[in-house]
Automatic annotation (TrEMBL):
Domain of life: Eukaryota
Protein species of origin: Adineta steineri
Protein name: Uncharacterized protein
């Protein structure tokens, strides 16, 4: 079988874009973000809830990325205190900013933070802040997934509908039927793996699952 690093065909159907499949993107701005094992461990923990992470050590580049990001992708910001005081007033009004978290030992940052409703908390410990983000967005993800699988129209003028079927439900059934009829081949599998290698770059946990998928997947055992 072709190895994960041996695929030579670069004309893939999947193109690496920043408008990924994830609902949320975590923007992490910190001057020494790539300097030690602690940051790598924190990133791995964050990826259990928000996989798509963009890291910056330059405020201007971070601001530019935020302003140009797809408005369909909700951004979660993790920023060091000094950078946050400069950046937050400039981007807080953007609709695709979902929440902002500040890491700082300076108590003064809690004072200016009160002026910005999207700023959820200021914490001294990066570990504690990571736990807070994971808790908040595990809940958000459950809500989002629930909305995606909403199957029935709720209440109309005549009360609760028991006969009207949501068009999205019909579409989902047709999509599932089409997918079941598709035949797979090795090229399709390699394109999928190539895309997710890039999507989960830096996530040891997810890449291990992807490696397992590459070794063990077969159409007869398609539920993963």
């Amino acid at each position: 079988m072709m190895g994960m690093n041996d695929r030579s065909d670069k004309n893939h159907f999947f193109k690496r874009e920043d408008n990924c499949f994830e609902t949320f993107t975590l923007i992490w701005l910190e001057t020494n973000i790539n300097c030690d094992q602690k940051h790598e461990d924190i990133e791995e923990k964050l990826r259990t809830t928000i996989n798509h992470i963009k890291k910056f050590d330059d405020l201007d580049k971070c601001k530019k990325y935020i302003e140009e990001a797809s408005k369909d992708n909700k951004l979660v910001l993790l920023i060091s205190g000094q950078s946050g005081q400069q950046l937050v007033p400039l981007i807080h009004q953007l609709q695709h900013i979902s929440a902002i978290y500040i890491i700082s030992e300076d108590k003064n940052n809690k004072t200016w933070a009160r002026d910005f409703p999207k700023l959820k908390t200021v914490k001294k410990s990066l570990k504690n802040l990571t736990s807070q983000i994971n808790e908040d967005y595990a809940r958000q993800r459950r809500v989002h997934e629930s909305e995606c699988f909403n199957m029935f129209i709720g209440i109309n003028e005549g009360g609760t509908s028991t006969t009207s079927i949501n068009g999205q439900f019909v579409f989902s059934q047709l999509l599932i039927d089409c997918l079941l009829r598709l035949t797979s081949n090795e090229m399709d599998k390699n394109e999928l793996i190539d895309y997710y290698e890039k999507e989960y770059e830096g996530s040891c946990v997810q890449l291990a699952k992807l490696n397992e998928f590459e070794k063990d997947y077969s159409p007869e055992n398609a539920l993963w």
